[in-house]
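Duplicate of #3305? Posting structure anyway:
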């Protein structure tokens, strides 16, 4: 079959070729980045740089796109017919990804362009069916076919074990998994080539209502996921949908702190900065997932939701945040400038991707952020404290409960993030240590958040050398420390909200006590004047027997004062002794019932004894003698 030929320069129309038109994934739907050594400035020297590879430049490599599907011998890999058909289908659909693979590792600036330190592919969609396809397409089947097959099996098992279902869509429980776990025959594989799969939730901002239209990398399956629940995708969820998995949160979304707190309305400079940096007002807190698939030491794939309606600079998209902020921070802070000592593998990029995703809304990860997470909640708590000093009310109590609920969810998510980063650090440290006992899989809940030494598994030995004033020796330790610092700030905000809530309850109770005294005064006045009003109305009726009475005003006061005293006395009696009076009346009625039942029961017993005596024969001793 002949395919259309594209020009080597300019924009490529991928839909012009039927080969790409009918495929789920094409080069237009992914972002490819290469990490290479470059010599840009003489005063700086050789530095690691991350460059995005345009899809049009991949055309020469894609000429051999059917190489894997034709060369893969599924009959030699598995005896199961079902597994053979699945491998053949995956190779036919995702086999072109093998053209993006390169085994040449760059060691100096003079190496050819095909050599690189690491290749990172970012996918702006989260379909679980794509995971096996990317792992199959980017793996080296010429040398590690059995290991790749074992990793595919472990990946399917990992997805089925950690995928959860909710009213708002599917999601993964946070986990990190070594894809060669459970295969002891593959223990002799190189440490730097062990595949990993990681899933972690992270918080991001969004707009209220429908999001703006996407700009690029629009997957056709995104429309299908809204029409059918059978599409295996993990959608972007709000913070309420993340916590209330089985409940409808539509009526609770407008009560979010991000929705109700609008600091740009009272600060014109902030309003201008928000318009300049964001383009939209961030009025919704959402929870997304980051999937990291490490194929080997030189190839890594990340997955997240499509946020292409946001700007790439400032880096509001996840891919831009990873490449422009996290990568440069790790490179400038830890990687040595000596080319012989530099190395950047897929395992290094795991920490880079985690730093970019987990620090999306935190100022500690990027000081230039305009509205960070802690500022939004701190500003809203300041507004509630101002309302407390003016007029404490039950409405304020409900608003504080909403803030407490959201802060509890945010702290819970950060606890999961800290635990997972610690698990990743422990797993990579264990895999890279030749003397330690092998631990292929680590659960984040079984580890503490203490920092440990971390070394990157690779083909050559590598040690970090601190270039900045950071006190940490590894990027993983710095990531953990930054997360813990943000976690401490959010926990402090939660404690402040609890103290503010307790103080509001106290002030509301004091006000209710004052209101109770006022109501008591009004009640006494009403009880006193109610009989007087009744007597006045009674004597003022237009009847002949009342109108023609010969009595004087003295008769009115006698009746009015007597009725008033009786009403006030009865009210006080029922107010202070009403419960005792009611209990006494109830006990008296129950006593009458018990006495009546006893009399009836005794009468029935006496009548029954008389009947027995009447029927019982009289004993005659003479009958026995006869």
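Output from current build:
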């Amino acid at each position: 079959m002949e395919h259309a030929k594209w020009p080597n320069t300019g924009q490529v129309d991928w839909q012009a070729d039927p080969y790409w038109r009918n495929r789920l994934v094409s080069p237009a739907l992914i972002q490819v980045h290469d990490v290479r050594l470059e010599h840009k400035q003489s005063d700086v020297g050789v530095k690691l740089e991350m460059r995005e590879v345009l899809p049009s430049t991949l055309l020469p490599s894609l000429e051999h796109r059917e190489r894997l599907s034709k060369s893969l011998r599924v009959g030699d890999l598995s005896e199961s017919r079902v597994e053979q058909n699945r491998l053949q289908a995956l190779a036919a659909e995702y086999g072109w990804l093998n053209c993006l693979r390169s085994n040449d590792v760059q060691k100096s600036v003079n190496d050819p362009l095909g050599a690189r330190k690491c290749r990172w592919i970012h996918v702006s969609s989260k379909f679980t069916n794509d995971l096996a396809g990317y792992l199959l397409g980017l793996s080296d089947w010429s040398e590690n076919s059995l290991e790749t097959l074992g990793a595919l099996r472990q990946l399917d098992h990992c997805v089925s074990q950690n995928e959860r279902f909710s009213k708002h869509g599917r999601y993964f429980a946070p986990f990190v998994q070594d894809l060669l776990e459970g295969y002891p025959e593959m223990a002799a594989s190189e440490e730097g080539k062990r595949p990993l799969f990681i899933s972690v939730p992270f918080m991001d901002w969004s707009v209220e209502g429908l999001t703006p239209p996407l700009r690029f990398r629009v997957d056709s399956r995104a429309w299908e996921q809204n029409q059918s629940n059978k599409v295996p995708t993990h959608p972007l969820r709000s913070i309420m949908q993340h916590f209330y998995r089985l409940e409808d949160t539509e009526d609770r979304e407008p009560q979010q702190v991000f929705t109700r707190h609008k600091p740009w309305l009272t600060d014109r400079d902030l309003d201008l900065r928000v318009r300049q940096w964001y383009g939209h007002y961030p009025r919704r807190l959402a929870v997304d997932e980051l999937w990291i698939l490490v194929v080997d030491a030189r190839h890594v794939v990340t997955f997240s939701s499509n946020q292409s309606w946001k700007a790439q600079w400032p880096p509001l998209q996840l891919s831009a945040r990873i490449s422009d902020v996290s990568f440069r921070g790790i490179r400038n802070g830890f990687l040595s400038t000596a080319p012989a000592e530099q190395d950047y593998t897929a395992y290094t990029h795991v920490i880079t991707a985690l730093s970019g995703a987990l620090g999306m809304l935190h100022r500690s990860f990027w000081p230039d952020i305009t509205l960070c997470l802690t500022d939004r909640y701190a500003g809203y708590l300041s507004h509630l404290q101002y309302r407390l000093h003016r007029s404490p009310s039950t409405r304020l109590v409900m608003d504080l409960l909403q803030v407490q609920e959201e802060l509890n969810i945010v702290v819970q998510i950060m606890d999961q993030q800290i635990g997972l980063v610690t698990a990743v650090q422990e797993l990579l440290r264990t895999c890279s240590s030749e003397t330690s006992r092998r631990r292929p899989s680590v659960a984040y809940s079984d580890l503490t958040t203490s920092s440990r030494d971390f070394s990157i598994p690779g083909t050559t030995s590598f040690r970090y050398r601190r270039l900045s004033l950071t006190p940490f020796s590894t990027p993983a330790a710095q990531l953990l420390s930054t997360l813990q610092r943000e976690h401490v700030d959010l926990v402090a905000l939660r404690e402040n909200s609890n103290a503010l809530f307790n103080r509001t309850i106290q002030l509301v109770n004091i006000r209710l006590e004052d209101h109770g005294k006022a109501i008591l005064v009004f009640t006494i006045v009403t009880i006193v004047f109610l009989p007087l009003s009744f007597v006045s109305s009674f004597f003022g009726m237009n009847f002949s027997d009342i109108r023609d009475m010969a009595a004087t005003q003295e008769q009115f006061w006698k009746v009015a004062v007597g009725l008033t005293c009786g009403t006030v006395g009865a009210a006080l009696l029922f107010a202070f002794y009403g419960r005792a009076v009611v209990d006494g009346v109830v006990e008296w009625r129950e006593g009458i019932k018990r006495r009546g039942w006893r009399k009836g029961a005794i009468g029935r017993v006496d009548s029954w004894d008389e009947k027995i005596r009447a029927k019982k024969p009289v004993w005659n001793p003479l009958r026995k003698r006869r």
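Confirmed duplicate; merging threads. The chain has two domains: 14-218+231-507, 553-606. Residues 475-539 form the longest helix (65 residues).
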